[in-house]
Design a protein that fits this description.
With 469 residues, this protein is mainly beta. Helix content is 1%, strand content 49%. It has 2 domains: 3-27 and 369-468, Jelly Rolls, CATH 2.60.120; 46-359, YVTN repeat-like/Quinoprotein amine dehydrogenase (Methylamine Dehydrogenase, Chain H).
Length: 469
Amino acid sequence: MGTWETVDLSAKLFQNIEESVLRKSAAALENCFINEAGGHSRFPGLKAFVTLSGSANTYLYARKAPIGDLVAVSNSRVYLIDREANATDVTGVPVSGGQRVIFDETDNELVMAAGAEIIRLAKGTTEILSADAPLSTHVGYIDGYLVAVEVHSGRFQHSTANAFRTWDPLDTFSADGKPDEINGLLVSPYRELLLTGVESVEQFERLPSGTTPFFRRWSVGEGVLAPYTLVAVDQGNFAMNSAYEFVRFTGQVSEPAGDDLGVTFEKVTDWTDAWATAISIKGQKFILLQIPKSVNAYGTDGITCLYDYRQKKWYNLYGWEGSAPAKWPGCSYAEIWGRRFVGVAGGIYELDTEVYANVGQTQRMLGRTAPMDQWGPSFVDNVRMRVKRGVGATHDEDVAPPKIAFRSVRDGNRRTKWKYKSLGRPGDNYNTIQFGGMGHADSTWQFEWQITDPVSTEIVKLEAEVRKG
């Protein structure tokens, strides 16, 4: 008779070496995350909210109270969205430039930049902010000034104080710690003005008096490769640096945050339009990082990762196309009205904690352990899993209950067939599933499970009955 051995579900995802040489970490965690109890929780899915014209990416911004609109830019047009999903086109002048749209707001107007003229929305419809303002990819507001990056240069310019449509060419500064172009700008929650280039990051701060409103406080020779991955969260800033490392930096000190996925990032084929944002959902705090034009592990375009910056653990998000995983469909994100919205091609979806499909498409939750070798030559006579059950929607016997699939990989290449077990109809809350025997392995055991039915899934514990021999 064998002994019951616990499989560590809290092991972090590690993709910095080949899966075949892993021993303890998780090999795959898709559309799920490790919760504080050490189990696996399914990441929520998406439901339709608003359809807009065209099929261009939609970029979102949540305006601050008391205005409180959800703003969307899609196909260069600007829309105001209310909580009932009514969209009003307020485009007077379209947002041009072809880049990702960067938003900020003053006390009474919204400003947008995407590589051409800065666009403002105060009342009525959009218009050009100022003929004297620079063409810009990034614009930000700090202490009564609008600040904008001049495209393809190492310079930035600011408006006259509290006169945001007045720009003087003399109010131009150079970020000259290194002679590289400025590719990004961020105003942090701590009133820091960060200007980034591929070779450097410089921080400017406000001078409380004098004719020059900004001064450079520090500069470091570690640049930002993908400027739209720059995000301020957790009392610091995160970005993909020029050494293909996802790092957290505070002041002049940076520390790696993405070593567990280091090889994944090194193999990225195209960093164009890579972006990041902070997400708070289901009691968790994440950074979502997407590299939309690079090839993923399934050979399709789009790598999307979640980083739990409190537990320092990574996960992968995928959508579904045809019969295989594909790019997670989002391209922007905003939180407003206590809800979470995702910009997609030609519209807006809502990220909903009661939904576990992506607008009717499969959202597969997948977990896979490392090849475990601690049991030596052995039989696995049974596998049991404690899960949340009773998640089916109906007692109707003509409707199949949701299922979980489980299999093992023995010695790296001998896979068992998938075994399917019910996750229970309503009221069927007995929380232990037994999958039966998995055969014999000479050296390593690897377990894999997946759920494609659109139901809430919580995996609490996994054990194997192991008999040596």
